Amino acid sequence: MNVKWLGVLVAAVLVVGGASFAAPARAEGGLALLNVSYDPTRELYQAFNKSFTDFWQKKTGAAVTVQQSHGGSGKQARSVIDGLEADVVTLALAYDIDAIAKNSGLLPVDWQTRLPDNSAPYTSTIVFVVRKGNPLQIKDWNDLVKPGVSVITPNPKTSGGARWNYLAAWGYALKNFNNDEAKAREFVAALYKNVPVLDSGARGSTTTFVERKIGDVLLAWENEAYLVVNQFSADGYEIVAPSLSILAEPAVALVDGNVDRHGTRSLAQAYLEYLYTPEGQEIAAQNHYRPRLAEVVQKYAGQFKQIELITIDAVFGGWQKAQQTHFADNGVFDQIYQKK
Amino acid sequence: MNTRTEPVVIRRLFIGIALGFFGLFIVLPLICVFYHAFSKGWVVYLQALAHPDALAAMRLTVITALVAVPLNLVFGVAASWAIAKFDFKGRDLLLSLIDLPLSVSPVIAGLIFVLIFGAQGALGPWLRAHNIHVIFALPGIILATIFVTFPMVARELIPVMRSQGNEEEEAALTLGASGWKTFWMVSVPNIRWGILYGIILCNARAMGEFGAVSVVSGHIRGLTNTLPLHVEILYNEYQSAAAFAAASILVLLAIVTLVAKTVIEAVIRRGHTA
Amino acid sequence: MKPGFVKKSILPGFSLSLGFTIFYLSLIVLIPLAMLFIKSSSLGMAQFWSVITADRTLAAYRLSFGTAFASACVNAVFGSIVAWVLVRYSFPGKRIVDALVDFPLALPTAVAGITLTELYAPTGWIGQFLNVLGIKGAFSPFGITVALTFIGLPFVVRTVQPVLEDLDPQIEEAAASLGADRWQTVRLVILPVIFPALLTGVTLAFARAIGEYGSVIFIAGNMPLKTEIAPLLIMTKLEQYDYAGATAIAIGMLLISFVLLAAANYFQWLTSKNLGKV
Question: Is the ipTM above a cut-off of 0.95?
């Protein structure tokens, strides 16, 4: 009798296991689109997907569901390379989409020229979040290197957002020290000396700052900064715009190899183009991403602070070079920490 | 005087130490979880649990455990039988190999399956050509879970079986019982506590696994997010009450298995006295 | 079967059980792990060596193994006390305590990390008291050890508990009737019996602690050379699409843990064999 039970058990396991192999990873019935994105865009795409599916339904009469996947930008890119069948990717750095093109061949290397504005329908920048009343009177980057100021920023080795933070600081130092690389390095080293915790991701840093009450200033994406201020309004956080920051261009792309398999090319193309329409731009602006479209820029002008923005191409010669010089193993960031 | 116990003072002291340690390391974090889960009240708690994504995550987690635990159980019994009942060369090596998955960082545990089944991996092109999904789908999640919970049952059973010795089985066999019969009637009843604890341990770990599953899941909402991944997502959305609510479900699942254990215990006892 | 490979026994099922064990082990563990070696072999020996002997890698190894060892020691002592108390004594709420032992396993490691950080951060329930004492709770090796202790506790309790439950009362009664006092009985009779299980539990807790990522990453602080654990280094390599480097660090960890596990198993086997002869 017991042997029989064992048989039943094994059979049950095989059935469940077998069914799992047969079960498709994608929802059947009606078209589905998988958008693989990075962490801070959850709220943005929640709103955007709703607007897009309504738009598509009205236009074609077909129901469509957009599935979302979020995670660290680099990790998400790796998943797509390893076979996560994204129809579109919307990541933090063009560098990560370059990596997909280079390592998997799923999309052409010139993907960035296929959509307007470097394939970045919205932009953002790096700002400071300080505690209520800004007790240390932090106004600009040079206030961050003062002794006793505690700065919260994630680890640039593991976080895309943290790389923008680092490069913004570097850009400020270059400008202030007349492009003296050595001085810039000293400045950034002094800044990181004031960092008590290097979280692995941007949201980890926010938690450290907001929930653990560690640090005097948080370096964050502008959209994240607004989210913090709104979500934790009772604590009275304030946003400080530095005199100079970096233009962050989160990029979007169609993954050719996957849309052709799924037969979703026109849908995916429409999805990305919808980001550039007034409706799409409005949603981006409402989620505190800087829009591109002039009319929407004007409408939301009061919401975004005037900051001088440098670009990664002009100052650092593009992502490939910046990554190699600063963030690769034994790059500048590692050297900062090796020097005792 | 009872020869199997200690003076009251020592007893109290030990209970005190155990409870103190336990309180600090287990109860306090537990309170912390429930404190946060209910920080926004019952309504938010229940809403968080009734969310379709949360329900899908629960279903996925349960299915995963339903496949992974029985497989590891069968393996555990076979392995402990071979290792505890027989004396053969290379047994220590085998034992150490069985432990290996535990010390593999969960990140790496996920990565090895990516290296095999991923699009750039050894089997990737073939799987893609045949439209079979392994990673970023249920099979990958199950495989990663089996890997990280691999030694749980075996390691639980080996010491128990070893402490039993071989005498009872040998007696049964000498009396003419068949091999299977001896196994079911003599060995299994003797190791039933080990089996139970092994299942509980394996199940808890299977349901709670985060790191390895995170690598192979793809994080598609409502499709490939297990409960632990769902918790992380909610937390990253600054919905900490909802995140801890989902986490509390995992805790409750563990407690349910423990209650089940107690019930089984009682049933077995009744069976014996009847 | 070669003569001398296995000691003769009248018990059946050796070939079947060992065969299945090896088959399943190969399928789930050995073949997949072999992929690690294949992947890292693209590095070449010299490069492999330079990756795993870099200052940061060594510091991370030291930290990971050191804190894992410390937490395993803490768990060995307190875990066996908890198991003992649960099996032998009755006190109010015992059932609840018993049920909660598995809590660290059931809690997703990320939540465990967040919760513990919350408790041990300078503003936390425990952290503020540690702060007064001048101890840095979270973001230090101390914090890492706390997290690993939390993760490892069920392993020790749950391996010692069944052996204690199965312990034949007659042994102790016999010892007592032969004039042994209680302490002698515990030390000379009970401890040796549970020792193999205890060692198993501690080994499991230790092994689990070495690779732990989710719960540690929040509480560690992640400062290079100071509080950067080895699994984090693997993650940073992966972020650079450096699969070979990542697998190299993983193999380094794997080899060290394998040697430690093999030593523990061998030692355990010796003690239990001696016990059998008594």
Answer: no
